[in-house]
Design a protein that fits this description.
alpha/beta, two-stranded antiparallel ribbon, 6 strands, 35% helix
Length: 288
């Protein structure tokens, strides 16, 4: 079940954290190019310069823990993704005041009912009964976190209105691009955008439903913008992740992630770039 799967994943992470040394930028990366040759067969791409190389696993773990560089945590609008996000990063979140952001663009791709959500736009789902009843979790702390630390400004509801409708392939691809666009937005953290959207939710939702985010500047005296952080931690779904690799990896990159889904509670890291108005994953940077 979900609790058992998550418990096993947390034990694996704990074991990794026990053996991982703090990141040293001068040290040799543990995941070298030769280590990745089992999964990748590519022609070296010079567009990325020194960024096209696998990252040190200890560095990736440090970023997940909130160290080394600023990072933003985002999650799909499906409750199982939100639960995985909160529980797996709890040791980081409980020591900070940071929020996690729900993004509709991360919603799972597919026709199954379990790719849909009943959570409406700008809303947060309730903590699941399993999490509320288990003795291994603090239900009061979870309820408080869901009420105060989950930001819904980019949650525009389910991809389709009910299970009788199906999302087209074109719309699925559009949501992948929406997420890529969101990563490089310069003002997606500006508080005045959040305040305006919540004071006029319907107008804001109508403006962004097709694009996934604010498309025009909101007229205001406040002009503060916050740059996109260097790292995005996205908690999502296996088919969505596979389609993201298929869409944004170079065509000559033969990475296994194009063909097979990531395991439950699996982690994969990579560098993502915008080059000449096109998005692309640096293929040698993939670390898993």
């Amino acid at each position: 079940d979900a609790i058992a799967s998550l418990t096993s994943a947390m034990q694996n992470i704990e074991q990794l954290m026990t053996t991982a040394a703090p990141y040293d930028a001068n040290a040799t990366a543990t995941a070298t190019g030769s280590d990745m040759d089992m999964n990748m067969n590519i022609v070296r791409d010079t567009r990325f310069g020194t960024h096209n190389q696998a990252m040190d696993i200890a560095f990736v773990l440090d970023v997940l823990c909130g160290k080394n560089m600023p990072s933003k945590i985002v999650t799909s609008n499906l409750r199982r993704a939100i639960s995985t996000c909160v529980l797996s990063l709890w040791f980081r979140l409980r020591l900070s005041a940071e929020k996690i952001y729900i993004l509709s663009s991360l919603q799972e791709i597919g026709l199954n009912v379990d790719t849909l959500t009943d959570t409406r736009q700008f809303q947060v789902p309730q903590v699941s009964n399993a999490e509320m009843q288990t003795e291994h979790l603090d239900s009061k702390a979870l309820n408080e976190f869901y009420a105060t630390r989950i930001e819904t400004i980019y949650n525009y509801g389910s991809k389709v209105s009910n299970s009788f409708f199906m999302e087209s392939l074109q719309n699925s691809q559009h949501r992948l691009k929406v997420f890529a666009d969101w990563i490089f937005m310069m003002d997606h953290d500006a508080q005045h955008i959040i305040d305006d959207a919540k004071s006029q939710p319907q107008q804001h939702a109508n403006a962004v439903k097709n694009s996934g985010f604010k498309t025009t500047k909101i007229k205001t005296q406040k002009t503060t913008t916050i740059p996109v952080p260097p790292a995005i931690i996205a908690v999502g779904h296996s088919k969505w992740i596979k389609e993201f690799f298929k869409t944004y990896l170079p065509t000559n990159a033969d990475f296994i992630g194009k063909r097979k889904k990531l395991n439950n509670c699996g982690v994969v890291a990579f560098k993502f770039a915008k080059i000449k108005q096109k998005y692309v994953i640096a293929p040698d940077s993939i670390t898993c």
